[in-house]
Recover the amino acids of this structure.
């Protein structure tokens, strides 16, 4: 299947200098699938519907302030390659070209809808994220915002004092709460209103009950549930448990990433926010991860995901980056994360942590094998 089967022509083209007010009115009136932004007739990026309508920027702000860089794809591009480009670009939509002419756009939802029937071969536990960042129901909205930003995630499970799942809070929940409260309050001390909202407990804005998935069900079932509830992710909970605790998170992006897995001998590596790579190349990243994986030959790496996230802090102009590396292997998931100034520093800090964790798995398995040999010898006595 290629993109010509699922690309849609409905979109809006705007200039980077256009006012947000005009583009917002187009969305509210025509409900297009996306906005493609041009700067002096050159493609500049995209703006998603939710990103635009929920932006707190003033109406006179230029569209260039909210534009998101996104890769363009050819109308005959393979769906697998398009999925990789969307994941690595950390975007939900991308423009589709036929030669030099803009044909339309492709979205994450359109890709997942097109391949939904084939997702019955993938289970939730194969693609879900096991290392989940959560917060308590008494934590403040301000802390939730910090956790979302610092960890580069879009949703946080909310737990009570006994670590039982009571809700979930997403970036959209927070934005809608701020927008709704500001419209209700009207004009006033905006800074004071925001400070007050940041101090409120998360419990006041969480979504509950939580839409969940279990590890054993198919990705097809999980994605269908996301579409039915108009959400982008599910909390994974244990099967047949008396109480709901958090076992992971599965998102549309996780499933989209699974579409890019290959059967080739070379390790399949994806880099989210690949544009943040500065002094190192994609090839260096792949080779470095392969070197770590090769130190434990019994562990077959199915897929590797590297995620870069930029913080506001800088040192002599170089931004502080967080790097997360996650491997899906025949021995389960293993990962490492770290921070550093620039992609090279952050990546190698995370790589060192990954190597320690891989060697730890090797040591645990070696100990278990030794204990098994010892027990067999005792049994022979």
């Amino acid at each position: 299947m290629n993109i010509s089967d699922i690309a849609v022509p409905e979109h809006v083209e705007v200039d980077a200098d256009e006012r947000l007010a005009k583009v917002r009115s187009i969305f509210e009136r025509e409900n297009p699938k996306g906005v493609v932004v041009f700067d002096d007739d050159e493609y500049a990026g995209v703006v998603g519907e939710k990103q635009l309508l929920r932006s707190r920027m003033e109406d006179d702000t230029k569209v260039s302030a909210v534009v998101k860089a996104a890769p363009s794809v050819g109308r005959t591009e393979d769906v697998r390659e398009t999925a990789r480009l969307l994941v690595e670009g950390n975007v939900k939509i991308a423009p589709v070209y036929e030669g030099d002419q803009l044909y339309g756009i492709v979205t994450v939802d359109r890709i997942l809808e097109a391949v939904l029937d084939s997702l019955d071969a993938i289970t939730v536990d194969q693609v879900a994220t096991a290392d989940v960042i959560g917060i308590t129901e008494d934590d403040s909205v301000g802390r939730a915002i910090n956790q979302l930003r610092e960890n580069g995630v879009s949703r946080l499970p909310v737990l009570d004092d006994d670590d039982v799942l009571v809700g979930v809070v997403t970036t959209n929940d927070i934005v809608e709460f701020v927008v709704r409260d500001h419209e209700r309050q009207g004009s006033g001390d905006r800074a004071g209103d925001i400070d007050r909202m940041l101090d409120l407990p998360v419990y006041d804005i969480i979504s509950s009950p939580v839409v969940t998935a279990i590890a054993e069900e198919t990705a097809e079932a999980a994605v269908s549930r996301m579409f039915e509830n108009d959400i982008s992710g599910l909390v994974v909970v244990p099967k047949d448990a008396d109480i709901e605790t958090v076992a992971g998170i599965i998102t549309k992006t996780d499933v989209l990433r699974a579409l890019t897995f290959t059967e080739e001998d070379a390790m399949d590596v994806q880099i989210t926010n690949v544009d943040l790579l500065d002094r190192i190349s994609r090839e260096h990243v792949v080779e470095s991860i392969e070197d770590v994986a090769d130190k434990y030959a019994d562990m077959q790496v199915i897929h590797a995901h590297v995620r870069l996230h930029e913080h506001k802090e800088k040192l002599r102009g170089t931004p502080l980056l967080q790097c997360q590396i996650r491997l899906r292997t025949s021995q389960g998931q293993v990962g490492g994360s770290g921070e550093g100034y620039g992609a090279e520093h952050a990546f190698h800090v995370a790589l060192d942590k990954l190597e320690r964790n891989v060697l730890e798995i090797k040591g645990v398995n070696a100990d278990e094998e030794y204990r098994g040999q010892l027990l067999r010898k005792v049994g022979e006595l």
